[in-house]
Amino acid sequence: MDNTDVGYPIGNAGQPWGNAERVLWLSRQVRQRSYETDVLQAIDQLGSRFDVSEYGRLEYAQGSFPLFSIRTRNWRDDLPVVLVTGGVHGYETSGVHGALRFAEQHMADLAGRANILVVPCVSPWAYERIQRWNPNAIDPNRSFYDNSPSGESAALLRLVAPLRGRFLMHIDLHETTDSDETEFRPALAARDGKVFEPGEVPDGFYLVDDTGNPQPAFQQAVLAAVSTVTHIAPTDASGEIIGSPVVAPGVIEYALKELGLCASITGARYTTTTEVYPDSPRATPEQCIQAQVAAVRAAIDYALAHA
After folding, report:
1. Of 125, 141, 188, 251, whose Cβ has the fewest other Cβ atoms within 10 Å?
2. Strand order in the sheet with 115-119
3. 3-class state of residue 119 by DSSP
């Protein structure tokens, strides 16, 4: 089970992981930070101004993880609904803290204009372990579909289900990191019995639009706001970002629903996935959080202006 020929120290070349490999992988995951301290305490402080509720709970051998959402108080049925999600991949730190920062500093400003639903940390086990997958070696952000094998994804799907058809906008906050190339993509290839093919991590912020529902003006409005905070990712020598053709500066497209991605879950007219690069020598952790907040604010402003 220890074969570096696959580009990862677990598994055998050409063979998808079985239970033994998954157990070995799980045994190597170490808790590095506290969901309780970093996230739950921040959510608790918002309870005096917003409606905070537990929408699910993940029961793992390593602990019990309550899942929380933050809603606009005095929810109004005549207003559009916007969704902000972070921490679908728990290791992507600025997504979690960008969602919390937006709720703390800007969410109240939208009272009377929209109903805001913020889910700051979809994957708390992975947040604590700075990991992409959940304990079962499943990627929540490829698992947003009926009968999902990911408890994280299934819980979020249940939360939004009663509101489908009312969402105007959904922004999902992510990062692309150096560890994508050194850890997470090699692990994915090994798990699936495939050969790891190295890629290039883009230096800067970019967005992922929906192939099935492209909204180019919306994406550009978000990028314009973010560019005042941090730099936008250039294309590589092939005119691509992470292996996808660039359809406009700083924008690529994915087939969101077909891939089971979080940004597909609402059916909203306006959707985007942010990607911040926290390992850039040109960006600080604080800039990454501010970039996420700028993206959320610009996305909501544009969507409301064009509702």
Report:
1. 188
2. 51-60, 63-71, 115-119, 81-86, 167-175, 270-276, 206-210, 251-254
3. strand
Burial per residue of 78-92, b for 16 or more beta-carbon CB atoms within 10 angstroms, e otherwise: ebbbbbbbbbbbbbb
Per DSSP, 141 falls in state: G
Alpha helices in 36-175 (DSSP H): 41-45, 93-105, 124-129, 151-160
CATH of the domain at 151: 3.40.630.10
Q: What is the pLDDT of residues 9-30, one digit of tens each?
A: 999 999 999 999 999 999 999 9
For residue 170, give its domain range: 4-305
Residues 272, 301: Cα–Cα separation, whole Å: 14
- pLDDT tens digits along 211-255: 999 999 999 999 999 999 999 999 999 999 999 999 999 999 999
Work out the angle between the directed axes of helices 93-105 and 285-305 (0-180°, nearest 10).
Answer: 60
Question: How many CA atoms are closer than 13 Å to the CA of 296, on its beta-carbon side?
Answer: 35
Tens of pLDDT along 176-210?
999 999 999 999 999 999 999 999 999 999 999 99
Is position 253 annotated as part of the catalytic site?
A: no
Domain count, the chain: 1
Contact between 106 and 297 under an 8 Å Cβ cutoff? The reply is yes
pTM of the model: 0.97
CA–CA gap between residue 199 and residue 293 (Å, rounded): 28
The residue from 21, 104, 175, 275 that is catalytic is 275
